[in-house]
Design goal:
The protein is α/β, with parallel strands linked by helices. The protein contains seven helices and eleven strands. Helix 1 runs parallel beside helix 2 and helix 3 (104-112) packs parallel to helix 5.
Amino acid sequence: MDVNFGGFVPISTVDWRGKAVCTVFLRGCPVRCTYCHNASILAGCDPRPVEEVIGMINSSRLLISGVVFSGGEPTMQAEALVALAGAVKKMGLLVGVQTNGVYPDTLEVLIENNLVDRIALDIKARWQRYDNLMKVPCVGKVQRSLALCRAARKSGKLHEFEVVITLFRGYEDEVPYISRECSDVDLVIQQGVQGDIPPLSCSELKKIADPLNRQVRIRTREGGEISYEGSRDRWITSER
């Protein structure tokens, strides 16, 4: 079996909070977000045997506690991802997946077969804007992915689950809506960087988070990741 390979980072301390991991990028994605920082692997073909990628992971095994699969969209390659996740679990390592939620069936297989420990789901806008923003009909699939992950987290089948909002200037009003939709889910507000548009600063993201009256995580290039609880106006020490 081949995987459409997008890249490999042998050790990362930023892709899984509090853990050293390696990161495997799988090529291909059905949507074309204009801000994607991995635009070079959204298309194209670089077939590699699954065994070759497992070998890459194994080369980092003594230095890591887990593997993160990212992209592109890793769940687009369902069969290869399931095979890779199974191999990782046999090594005694944790499995994380970063996803846009467009392939809920893949997530369901991973969850039901205990092949994933952490899922980060990127939610991009309020549901009414989704299909127009993505240029493909996908809102129902993303909603199903959210429901699957939420239920799995509550039942204990998924150890970690977070919703990530990549936020750009001018779209601040999306945050309260998404927060309400995910009120019982860990929420991350991530600084979006696109072209010459000045990104929102950490202090600006704090102000956006203040009215949510909940703990969130804020990620910026200049400050890394912090935990913030706006209702108390105080910083909370982050694990990262």
